[in-house]
Amino acid sequence: MFDIKKIAAHRLVPVIKLNDAKNASPLARALEAGGLPLAEITFRTDAAEASIRNIKRDCPGVIVGAGTVTMVEQAQKALDAGAVFVVTPGISDRVIEFCLKNDLPVFAGVCTPSEIVRVLEYGIHIVKFFPAGQYGGLSTVKALSAPFPNVMFMPTGGVSEDNVMDYLAFPKVIACGGSWMVPEKAIDAGDFGKVEDLVSRAVALVGGA
Q1: Strand 152-155 relative to strand 106-107: parallel, antiparallel, unpaired?
Q2: HSE-CB for 173 with a 13 A CA cutoff
Q3: Partners of 53 in beta bridges
Q4: Has this prediction a pTM greater than 0.70?
Q5: 17, 40, 77, 196: which one is catalytic?
Q6: Which of 17, 56, 77, 128 is flagged as catalytic?
Q7: Can you list the domains of the chain with their CATH numbers?
Q8: Using CA atoms, how far apart are residues 5 and 132, in angstroms rounded to an integer?
Q9: pLDDT digits (tens, 9 = 90+) for 77-95
Q10: What is the pLDDT of residue 209?
Q11: 8 A C-beta contact, residue 188 and residue 24
């Protein structure tokens, strides 16, 4: 089973939207070259499954997971393609149960105490706080951590170069999800040199593995 400590070591999870699976492997190589061999490929496009499969085949050193998973069918596709973790934007009991049954780590999206309680009932203690920027950011993470001392948070949504270190300085934040180092326009244009530069800069900023 995938060791979640690997995500904690890198401190950043690139949240990636791929419109064409042919860009998946060059993107993964740019992530590796930039020092961040980790990718959350979102199911926001039909290219997600093939993209995950391509990265697993061509870049085995890259940790690849699936994001924006809202249905069991997507989770199954992600698993079959080789994803080693799943991230959801909200709570789907069916998706969580599927992931647990298949020993697939899942980071469920939460933004309220009630949602955290629901996730805890599954024995899950690491949650995605989303959309972080719109739900109070770090101040809300701190407030939520008080009644849930055993919960770790992965803020995503509105996280940027300007505020990521504020989040990471809080000990209950295991890592942050972000897309600023993997801009969709650069990927679509095939400008993977730019992606590598942005990733290198992000890694230098957060001091990841």
Answers
A1: unpaired
A2: 28
A3: none
A4: yes
A5: 40
A6: 128
A7: 5-206 (3.20.20.70)
A8: 22
A9: 999 999 999 999 999 999 9
A10: 64
A11: no
- Confirm whether 128 is a catalytic residue: yes
CB distance 141 to 167 below 8 Å: yes
* Per-residue burial over 25-50, b = 16 or more CB atoms within 10 Å of its CB, e = otherwise: bbbbbbbbbbebbbbbbbbbbebbbb
Classify 151 as helix, strand or coil: coil
| Active-site residue flag, 32 | no
Coil, helix or strand for 185?
helix
The residue assigned the tokens 């209950």 is 172
Q: Please check whether residue 165 is in contact with residue 140, taking contact to mean a CB–CB distance below 8 angstroms.
A: no
**Under DSSP, is residue 93 helix (H, G, I), strand (E, B) or coil?**
helix
| Distance, CA of 129 to CA of 67 (rounded, Å) | 13
Tokens representing 165 are: 């270190």
Beta strands in the chain (DSSP E): 12-16, 38-42, 63-67, 86-87, 106-107, 109-110, 126-129, 152-155, 176-178
Pair of tokens at residue 156: 């995503």
Mode of pairing for the β-strands spanning 63-67 and 176-178: unpaired
